[in-house]
Amino acid sequence: MFWKKKQAAIIGGGIMGGDIAAVFAAGGWSVHIAEPSPNSREDLPGRFHSAMDKIRSNKQGEFFIYPAIEEIPWEKIEMAVECVPEKLELKQKVFARMEELSRAQIPLTSNSSGFPIGGIGKGLRSQSRMLGLHFFMPAHLAPLVEVIRSAATEPELAKEVYALMMELGKKPVLVGKDIPGFLANRIQHALMREALSLVEKGIASPEDVDDAVRYGFGFRYIAAGPLRQKDLTGLDTQYSAGVAIYPDLCNDSSPNAYIRKKVEAGHLGIKAKKGFYDWTRPQIEEFKAKYEMKLVKALDVMRDE
Q1: In terms of pTM, does the model score above 0.85?
Q2: Are 235 and 242 in contact (CB under 8 A)?
Q3: How far apart are CA 71 and CA 155, in angstroms?
Q4: Which domains occur in the chain, in start order?
Q5: Which helix (H) or strand (E) holds 162?
Q6: The dihedral sign for the CA sequence 36, 281, 207, 197
Q7: pLDDT tens digits, 208-254
Q8: CA 293 from chain center: how many Å?
Q9: Which of 33, 150, 222, 262 is geometrically suited to a Cys-Cys bond with 10, CB 3.0 to 4.6 A?
């Protein structure tokens, strides 16, 4: 249906936008990135080529950078991905402009990690061609992509985008209802709610929580997801454990005071050199290098499938 010219528009050239551009380029697509910040535009080529090296594809589409969305050659574009900062009004403004500039039949997608696509496209004429297309950081390495439909999205279009993600070497999942957090982030935040509660109550340290996940049940997830893994161990065991554990689990309906106080204090993680852990510049550089190396090795395992 689409993809004759293999030309994609990426709106926003930050970390996610640059990595998503590399995913398309590694599949033989030409990518056109609109990024208003001069500093980000200057950094983009280096980040793009670094991501391409890690993907290890024998294909490479062309790569173009523009200071404004209007400068993209929209007459060639067959797919658009919005990757601007996570602010609803900004995303709505960008989508309105993409609708004006693009050809009528092409998919308009958002990499938002939380805002429903129905809210981003609210009031626009062509909501039937709008989808969430949620990549995970780092987008060039993490296989998962969520393809999210709103009530207005044309189902066949979602299937076309799903198939394209497969062609680009990703592992897509279809999310059939436009709910906050979609699929993976809802599961992730359920885990984080309990993890933060355990630390807040002094039951475990951040280090012990991280180790419990990485070396316990998280270690198994590269081989089997949680539901398949429970088929392996037995649903009766899962049910019995749930009877004992569920009544005692944290069920807060808002982020707890522990993380709120950290945010209020400016302890935002690596970018502030303080979060759950204290960080120095050498520690940050070492951690990031090892983190990407481990992801590359994990991706090699997943590629066997």
Answers
A1: yes
A2: no
A3: 31
A4: 7-175 (3.40.50.720), 183-255 (1.10.1040.10), 266-305 (no CATH)
A5: helix 155-167
A6: negative
A7: 999 999 999 999 999 999 999 999 999 999 999 999 999 999 999 99
A8: 19
A9: 33
